[in-house]
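Treating backbone geometry as a discrete language has practical consequences that deserve illustration. The amino acid sequence and the backbone structure tokens for this protein are reproduced below.
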Amino acid sequence: MRIHRARHRHTREIMQEILIETLMTKGVYSLAQDARLSDAIAIMKEHHCSCIIVTKDDKPIGIITERDIVRMVADWGTGADLLSKGVTEAMTSPVVTVNEKADLLSTLVISRAQRIRHLPVVDSDGIVTGMVTHSDLIKVYLQIFEKQREIIDNSIAERTASLIKANEELKAMALEDPMLGIGNRRAMEVDIQHTHTSAIRYQYPYSVIICDLDLFKSYNDFYGHLAGDETLKVVARVLKANIRGSDRLYRYGGEEFLILLPETEIVGAASVASKIVKKVKTANCAHIKSPFRVITISAGVCSASHIDADKSWKDIVMIADVRLYKAKEGGRNRVVAED
């Protein structure tokens, strides 16, 4: 593997050079959309594979995993009714894919954020060319860090400088905010870019919520930054507990959070935003400098539906950000979801 030839290069360069096409398994089993579930089960049993790709014109439209089979058995039993079902009734759709030219880090972010164990790999035309698993990604990811440590250990004369540089790179490539235990901005950008691209391809919506703690500078000035850090942790826990399983939470800035809601229109996103605004207030974190006397947040919401290919995810985030500040100007502790 090329990471073993990269003795004097740093981690970031190595990560950028490792493309998914070099890691993927090329032997992928697929079925046409008119196939039966019995066909999928037969292939999985015969070839000891854990998933089947459902395709239309060689392009993936769904995926059937062992978990999907278990779910179907729970719903229908193991009789003829189950086996006569079409694969489209059992598959997870739309299927999340990754381009074969994507790098290791981007793919790992997507797999982690969406809790996906199997990622079909496609070429520039959307044709399936292989499969990569979360285990494959983690294995290589750890190999790179182990190799970097070996390089540092073997370079005694440059040990200090190399260690500092490696630590800086590891921090930059981290996927989580170390204090809050949620995704950081780097992971957010990769995740939302992938969500945006998939939404354009499959023409399904997604929404973004940007939340900001109200009068947080005043809070830090009065209570101190250590108390501010603890309050951020409380708010992060409240947000995480009150979003759906499919939604993803990221630290967007100092006291700003971004929530990514796949396949969600503006009404649903606004409902989620309203819920978390209420829950943060009822957490009763004292804030004597606030007119509410407790910590509150404001939120801006934007939804991308039937997306124009000319628009970027940054346009969606910018609109949500503008609406956030309208919520601030409107009195705080509220949601703005339209202009």
User: Anything to note?
Assistant: The two ends are 52 Å apart (CA to CA). Confidence is low (pLDDT under 50) at residues 1-8.
